[in-house]
Each structure stands twice: as structure tokens, then as C-alpha cells.
Design brief:
156 residues; mainly alpha; TIM Barrel; 3-stranded parallel β-sheet; 4% strand; globular
């Protein structure tokens, strides 16, 4: 709801969309009914903005509770976490540090967790600034940057 035009542009460009809950609350602190509402409202916000129902679910901070895990599955959302997280949520990380971490920690099948908002106040700008170097560095190491659906569909 905060940026439906951005969400629409992402969908139109063919990128994968995911549900990250409605208000990014820590699910471990919520009762089951509130967790289900977070998952449902998050999915509805994505679908309302884009016309596309989210295919994936990632809980805030990667912390599932049972209600979120079950509800995302009931909605047909594949539950996905990450294997590379270069950002500093509690402290600043420069674009150069972020790019170096991704390039150093990357491995075949890596799912990289990056944020364009939230976390430390410098994180969004550092993320956008780091992206060209991240992509170039990964390609230099022989990796391809692919949509999540291609990565997961190719998994054994």
C-alpha cells in the first residue's frame, strides 16, 4: 500500500513478488489469529497493487511461527529464506562492504537478502549503490543472477 506504483512496475518488469507480511511485525510475538491476518493482509496488498498474487513468503527477520508457516502454505506461497545477508541491520554498512560480502559469500544456489527500506537508515541507499558492483562481481565469479522462480524450479 505504501508504494503500489513501484510494486506494479516490479511485476510488469517480470520480477518475482513475495509476501513479507503486512506490517513487518515480529511473528513470534503475535497470537495465531494476528499472524494469519499479517500474512493475509500482506498477500492482499501485493495482489491489489499488482494484480499478481505473491508466489513466495518470507517472514520478517526470517522468524516463522507455526501459524505463518501453515497460512503461507495454504495461500500457495512457497516459504523462502536466504543464504547470504550482507546488510547491517543494527549498524551502517557501506555499499562497498555490502558488495564485497555478497561476492565473497556467494555460492551456487545462493539466495541474497537485500532491502530497499528499513534497517539502519543507510541501508536503502547502500543497497541501491551496491547493486551494480554486486552483479558485476557475481558475473566475474561465473555466477548468473536469476529470478527466484528459476533458481527454485531448477532445484532437485
Amino acid at each position: 500500500e505504501a508504494a503500489p506504483g513501484v510494486a506494479r512496475a516490479v511485476a510488469v518488469a517480470g520480477h518475482d513478488l513475495g509476501n513479507h507480511t503486512y506490517s513487518h511485525r515480529h511473528l513470534w510475538t503475535l497470537p495465531p489469529w494476528a499472524t494469519v491476518a499479517e500474512v493475509d493482509l500482506g498477500a492482499a496488498a501485493v495482489a491489489d497493487a499488482t494484480g499478481v498474487f505473491p508466489r513466495y513468503f518470507r517472514p520478517p527477520w526470517g522468524m516463522f511461527n507455526w501459524a505463518a508457516y501453515v497460512r503461507a502454505g495454504q495461500l500457495g506461497e512457497e516459504r523462502v529464506l536466504w543464504s547470504v545477508r550482507p546488510e547491517g541491520w543494527l549498524g551502517p554498512v557501506t555499499a562497498g562492504e555490502m558488495a564485497a560480502r555478497v561476492i565473497r559469500w556467494a555460492h551456487p544456489g545462493a539466495v541474497i537478502d537485500l532491502h530497499d527500506r528499513g534497517g539502519h537508515p543507510t541501508t536503502p541507499r547502500a543497497t541501491w549503490t551496491a547493486l551494480p558492483g554486486v552483479i558485476a562481481g557475481l558475473r566475474a565469479r561465473g555466477f548468473s543472477v536469476v529470478p527466484l522462480r528459476l533458481l527454485l524450479d531448477a532445484a532437485p
